[in-house]
């Protein structure tokens, strides 16, 4: 038995932080009928969304993939958002809608006039997210194979 056992502290339980760095692979799939069959079925009756709606999103996805800076921003945003969902966290989220809208607005110059007008209208009407849902779903993080690269305790003065 120790000569001077630790005394009960009058301080509340302390809290410390650890920094965790890991790599996760993100698979990006083109928007094709096969890739979206479980989430989108075009309505050929004229009542719902046609396949053109999905094709337009694929063209936006292809424009995103051609812009390395925008792609990096979107990857970090979507990965952060996905990680927050995985943890069921309310405070871990991707970029705000306004920033995402601005990111996609930059890409419109690479697109046809019809696509550009469509997405500008969606942005103006506040329904851009509803019209890029398949773009978001094209990015799939492989969390089960994520690799921890670094874990360290953060000193209180660094936090």
How would you explain this protein's 3D organization?
Helix content is 42%, strand content 13%. The chain has 159 residues and is an alpha+beta fold. The protein has one domain (17-154). The mean pLDDT is 91.
Summarize the structure.
The chain has 159 residues and is an alpha+beta fold.
Topology:
Elements lengths: L16 E7 L2 E3 L4 H4 L14 H15 L2 H19 L10 H11 L5 H12 L8 H5 L1 E3 L5 E8 L5
Antiparallel strand pairs: 1-4, 2-3
Number of domains: 1
**Gross geometry:** elongated
Helix-strand category: alpha+beta
Global mean pLDDT: 91
Strand order, largest beta sheet = 1-4
Residues in helices, as a percent range: 40-55%
Key attributes of the depicted protein:
159 residues; alpha+beta; two-stranded antiparallel ribbon; 6 helices; 4 strands; elongated
